[in-house]
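Hey, can you fold this one?
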Amino acid sequence: MNKIVYVVNTLEFFNSHRLPLAIEAGKKGCEVHVVANISSEDLISENGLTYHHLAFSRSGQNPFYEFIILYRLLMLLLKIRPDLLHLVTIKPVLYGGIVGRLIRVKSVVAAISGLGSVFSASNWADLVRLWLVKALYRTALNHKNLTVIFQNEDDKRKLLSAKAVKESKARLIRGSGVSLKEYDFTVEPRAESVVTVSMAARLLKEKGVCEFVDAARLLKQRNVAVSMQLIGSPDPGNPSSITEEDIRLWEEEGLVTFLGYRKDIAELYSRSHIVCLPSYYGEGLPKSLVEAAACGRAIITTDMPGCRDAIIPGKTGVLVPAKDSVALANAIQYLVENPDQRTQMGKAGRKLAEEEFTIEHVVERHMEIYQELMSRG
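Sure. Predicted structure:
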């Protein structure tokens, strides 16, 4: 029986983005393990998977702590002895790739679900950090039987140019997939007085939260009848996280309605008219936008890698420049004042989701990659 080990920063991310892959691998007779920082084990145990706790840190400011995590991952994988490692998100890809080479794991899948902000170097300190990260990628991805899965062409190009991965080992799979049954197409609610705009994301500055709020302030000044919903929670372990105090002040000013972390995203989108993600984080292909397309909602997002790959500009949504709250407010106002255009974008988005983003398509592509690697391993 082949052993597959998924290594991911948090169990919450695994449950929302990779669980269907693990379930399918289990159905095909593999012994499946999941290594992550804990949130809830329920979905793991319910699906016959084995969970191992490893406390990846968000910020990674303490080199000694990071070395301890690397050592614990080494010891854990020596104990499990996987046939295939599937590494997801930045630290698991870097640390897992290095450990996989040390213990000679037969096959490795590295999923690049966005490169974060490190590739946007703006000063000497950032450039040194970028040089170090590129060197780590070159080391981690230098495995003879490896496939690197990218979610957009920009990320692929960056790691190819950094000589971190060979073209022959790169694959493109657009996003993590969406269940069209769970995220069903619904006609948008009647907007007799107020149009609802929803943003669902980790509440980090790089996700464009401040631009979303600034756009809300501009729309309020223009007397545009719009309700701006912020869905998500702060990430206290991340230095760029929005704070509870920020949220309190925004609500007191009447700019946003804060809904916190929610699992009923499909229901919230069905009650919305527009979905917005003004991110400049360095996304892979944002799951929130794929889900919005499946629900048939017009999208406003930034002309950034990952974000722009989730829509067809002018057909399923609108692109705006990053960090531009005025352009964001203008785009929201345009869709508020043009409901026919908005609904046509939503219908086109659903069609795009049916053609490109189904979970069945994503799972099938991954199983093919697993089979290809393990047949060589």
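The chain has a mean pLDDT of 92. Let me know if you want another pass with a different chain boundary.
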